[in-house]
Each structure stands twice: as structure tokens, then as C-alpha cells.
Specification:
Blueprint (H helix, E strand, L loop, with lengths): L1 H9 L19 E3 H8 L3 H9 L5 E4 L2 E5 H20 L2
Antiparallel strand pairs: 1-3, 2-3
């Protein structure tokens, strides 16, 4: 029986069942927490602290938390501006 289950796992779906590779250049509007952590090089704790503080906009999509790419980019821009201001001080 175990061999039969392994055979099922190895079988590939026929080509008409597989999703074709994406050829469009559509940028995502929202990302998952894992993708957001990767985008900002943040850990899970840091990410959820930023969400709780209102620095990142997020919502639940069923059981999955989604974060807007716009809020991630806005936070990065804010941090860059803060960095420039502190570096410009004599």
C-alpha cells in the first residue's frame, strides 16, 4: 500500500491540468507575510510588530494575512528619509 501511495505522488498531472507559466508583468498589490518578510529582510516578530504599530497595512484573507506592497514600499521610503536626515546633521 505504501508503494501505491508513492506511485501516486510521483505521477505528474497531464499538461492540460498544469497552470501555464506566467508571462505577464503584473506586479502584486498584496503579498503574504512570508513574502513581506523576504521583501524587507525582516523576521516574523519584527513584521508583526510593524503591523501592530500601524506601519504596515494588512488584512485577513480567510486564514491568510495579506500585506499591501504599497505600505511596505512606503515604510522603506520613510526609513530612507529618516536616514538621510540623521546623516545630514552636523
Amino acid at each position: 500500500m505504501a508503494a501505491n501511495q508513492q506511485d501516486r505522488k510521483r505521477r505528474r498531472k497531464p499538461p492540460h491540468y498544469r497552470r501555464p507559466p506566467s508571462t505577464s508583468a503584473v506586479e502584486p498589490v498584496v503579498v503574504s507575510t512570508v513574502e513581506a518578510m523576504r521583501m524587507g529582510c525582516w523576521g516574523k516578530t519584527k513584521l508583526f510588530k510593524m503591523i501592530a504599530a500601524g506601519e504596515l497595512e494588512s488584512f485577513l484573507d480567510g486564514p491568510v494575512r495579506r500585506i499591501t506592497v504599497e505600505s511596505i514600499e512606503a515604510r522603506i521610503q520613510r526609513k530612507l528619509e529618516e536616514s538621510r536626515r540623521t546623516e545630514a546633521r552636523p
